[in-house]
Fold:
Amino acid sequence: MKPYPDRVDYLPIIDRPAIRWPNGARVAFWVAPNVEHHEYLPVFNGRLDPYPRLPYPDVRDYSYCHYGNRVGFWRMLEVLDKHRIRCTVSLNVAVLEHFPEVRDAMCARDWAFMSHGIYNTAYLTTLSEAEERAFYADTIATLARHTGRRLKGMLGPNLTGTGRTPDLMAEAGLVYHCDWLHDDQPAPIRVRSGRLVSVPYALEINDSQLLKGYCDGAYFERMVRAQFDRLYREGAESGRVMCLALHPYVVGQPHRARYLDRALAHILAHEGVWQATADEIAEHFLAHHYDQWVAHAARFRA
Structure:
C-alpha cells in the first residue's frame, strides 16, 4: 500500500533539491489574513454543519465571526501597516461585495488574493464535478470584477475539497493549493493537465487554532517566534516557507494585537527574510525548482 496518495510524491527533506529564494533569503515569509464572511442562515449540506452548536441561527457564532469585518480587521490592519506587510488574503470572495470598505483597504495596499471560497459556511465536499467547476468560474470572475486581479491559488473554504479538486483547480488556471499541510517547502501536486504546487499554510501557529480558548497572546507570540527561529536556521541550507495565518475576529481582539506586533518585529528584524506573497512563492518555485523536483521524485517511483 502506498503511504501517500497519488497526488504527491514522498520526498524526505534530507534528500531533495535545494531551494534558493531571491537574494539568498533563508525564509519565504507570507502572512495570510483569512478575511471571511459567515452566513447568518447557511445551507446545511447534510455532512458538515457550519453551526453545530444549536439550530440556526446561531447568533453567538455568527456575530463573533462578523466582529472581524466590523472591528478586528481594522485593528489587525494597523499592526500590519506598521510593519509594511504585503499580505495574501485568504478571501471569502463574497466579502468583496458585502464589505466594500474592507475590499478597498486591501486593494489600496496591493495585497494578493487567494480564494477561500465564497462563504466560509459553504463547503466544497458535496459538490458535483459540474458544480465545482462552476465554483471556480464564479470565484475567478468575482475577484476579477472587483479587483482586476487574476486568481492564482486557493485555501478551500474551511479547508474542504473533493478528490477532483486539484485537477479542477489546474484546469481553471490556478497554480497553487494551500490545503496540503505536509511540508515546510512548496511541492508539486500531480494533476491531469497543467501544473499545480502546494504552498505551505499553517495550522500549528494559526491564531484560530491557538487563541480561541487554548493559549494566551504571549504564548502565541512565543510559538510564532520559535517557529521562525527554527526555519531560519534550517533555511541556511535550503529555503523554507513560513506562513502566519490570521483571522481578524481572533487576532483583532483588543487584548491580542500587541502580540502580533511583537512577533512580526522579531521576524522582520532578521536579514535573509523574503516577505513574499503566496503568489510569488508559487511562481518562483514553478520557474526555478518545479522541473528539478519532478525529475528527482521520478527516481523514487522507478
About this structure: The domain at 25-301 is CATH 3.20.20.370 (TIM Barrel).
